[in-house]
């Protein structure tokens, strides 16, 4: 071990020189990544590579399908749990050749990763020990960069809160600050808020940041956190669909569900200019509030645009809360259900949410003919036209308002 450590005592002018040095010792192409799988450096003197490495170098980050597969196969969890290198056999369908990897650590914090493609022969235990020594040296090499990043992150966080609170409205000044940090300003920007029922500790926060920075559906520009929320300024990817941020949020929730026992809520505001970040932030917070009070929204309503009529619910509730009057249709069904021990009121609510007899029947686990009969009976009792869009929306809002007020 002492001999191995001595091999890495020399000073390196750059991470690229360091990567070339590791490659020369271990006999295979090397890449060094940060904790978010963004490329920091790679060895240049090699006669062979693989598709995953080439894609990483071209895009300056590990492809998302490679990261997802390595999580699924337990490779990245193993890197996070153990201090020894992980040997990864070839995974042909993602273009990954035989390789060895290790996490670069500073105490309990993951600072990055070193990946080495297998050379002419399988990795030996000696090479594994050499890679451990290389990771120790890499931690020292990244330490200064890490401290500089910490200082910059603090400045970014203060700047972000100024945007969130409308404390700065000067677009040229905002743009100039982004250019100073990133070389350019976001072309599109919106706020994503993630809220946890339990306090967000360092472990959860690092997991959220890891997933956000590794996503290729969005670009994370700024982030901050409170006791129970993580607030992010993101830009949907240029070649994205309309709801790319929704797909990102869906994936983020699923991955957090697999790793933490507490429930999380997530929502985004609309795309806005950099001088109107506060508006997007307020909209994202509204999505979170709706998810908390209307349980049926949690599975599919993540964006402010998706709220539809729900965005008017809070204002309506303020006017209705002190004097909720019985709606004629709802009142008739309550009386009928109580007298006949039926479930027509709930049937109507499910139907209005589903806008389809078949979907409503599926949701209530009854036959479509039974649902059709119930709808017909509701029309007879209440004299409403369930096919009239105006009556549908009016009643749906009434149902939702009452659920919101009573929650």
Automatic annotation (TrEMBL):
Entries under InterPro entries matching the protein? CdaR-like_regulators, CdaR_GGDEF, PucR_C-HTH_dom, PucR_C-HTH_sf
Ranges for domain CdaR GGDEF-like: 174-290
Question: Keyword annotations for this protein?
Answer: DNA-binding
Q: Name one Pfam family in it.
A: GGDEF_2
The record places domain PucR C-terminal helix-turn-helix at 344-398
Name the Gene Ontology molecular function terms of this record.
Answer: DNA binding
Q: Which family does it belong to?
A: Belongs to the CdaR family.
Official protein name in the record: DNA-binding PucR family transcriptional regulator
- State the organism named in the record: Sinobaca qinghaiensis
Lineage of the source organism?
Answer: Bacteria, Bacillati, Bacillota, Bacilli, Bacillales
